[in-house]
């Protein structure tokens, strides 16, 4: 007739029959529960695209990588890495971002302080929120460091990034 529903092992009775439908249901539910966080993460992941990185002549610090993140809600964010290219500590620096329309027309400019204190040859990561106006998916974002001050100095290294940014953006003919 088949095996007994219960086996005896040293005074304990163990149920050896588990209906197949219950094990399939449990496996399916477990797989769904494990898949939900992954699906939510992918659905909520911000769109990512590279920003154009520019620099002036002989900068003491420069941006090595910049990515524009566009979340499902809120303004776009530029996530960037800034590196001190000198043997001296830098007190502070200023980051400037430009937004151009797809045809190369200037749309917006935003300035923000970068991270404070960059040790010699150190890289730090930071972010700039582009909340000066809407940024379309076809817009071109350009970023660079326009001012740097060394520790213990009143002097600033500075450059005009606007002509460099305009030259970096490809102009599309209408």
The biggest beta sheet is recorded as:
5 strands, mixed
Q: What is the H/E string? A: EEHEEEEEEEEEH
How does CATH name the architecture of the largest domain? Sandwich
Radius of gyration based on Cα positions = 28 Å
Poorly predicted ranges: none
Helix content: 10-25%
Taken together, the total number of domains comes to 2
Q: What is the overall silhouette?
A: elongated
Taken as a percent bin, the fraction of beta residues is: 35-45%
Structural class: alpha+beta
Count of separate DSSP helical elements: 2
Outline the secondary-structure elements.
Layout: E1 6-9, E2 12-15, H1 20-44, E3 47-50, E4 52-53, E5 61-70, E6 77-84, E7 90-100, E8 106-113, E9 123-129, E10 140-150, E11 156-158, H2 162-168
Parallel strand pairs: 4-10
Antiparallel strand pairs: 1-2, 3-5, 5-6, 6-9, 7-8, 7-10, 10-11
Tell me what the structure shows.
- By secondary structure, this protein is of the alpha+beta class.
- It folds into two domains: 6-44, no CATH class; 47-168, Sandwich (Immunoglobulin-like).
- It has two helices and eleven strands.
- The strands form three sheets. Strands 4, 7, 8, 10 and 11 form a five-stranded mixed sheet that branches.
- A hairpin with a 2-residue loop joins strand 1 (6-9) and strand 2.
- The mean pLDDT is 84.
Summarize the structure.
This protein is α+β, with helices and mostly antiparallel strands and 174 residues long. It has two helices and eleven strands.
């Amino acid at each position: 007739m088949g095996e007994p529903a219960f086996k005896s092992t040293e005074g304990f009775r163990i149920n050896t029959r588990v209906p197949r439908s219950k094990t399939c249901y449990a496996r399916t539910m477990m797989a769904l529960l494990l898949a939900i966080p992954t699906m939510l993460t992918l659905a909520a992941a911000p769109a990512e695209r590279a920003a154009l990185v520019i620099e002036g002549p002989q900068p003491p610090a420069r941006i090595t990588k910049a990515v524009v993140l566009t979340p499902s809600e809120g303004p776009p964010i530029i996530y960037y890495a800034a590196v001190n290219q000198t043997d001296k500590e830098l007190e502070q620096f200023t980051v400037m971002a430009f937004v151009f329309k797809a045809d190369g027309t200037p749309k917006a400019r935003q300035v923000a302080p970068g991270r404070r204190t960059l040790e010699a040859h150190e890289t730090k990561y930071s972010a700039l929120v582009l909340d000066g106006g809407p940024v379309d998916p076809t817009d071109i974002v350009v970023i660079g460091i326009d001012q740097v001050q060394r520790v213990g100095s009143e002097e600033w290294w500075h450059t005009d990034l606007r002509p460099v940014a305009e030259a970096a953006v490809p102009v599309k003919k209408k």
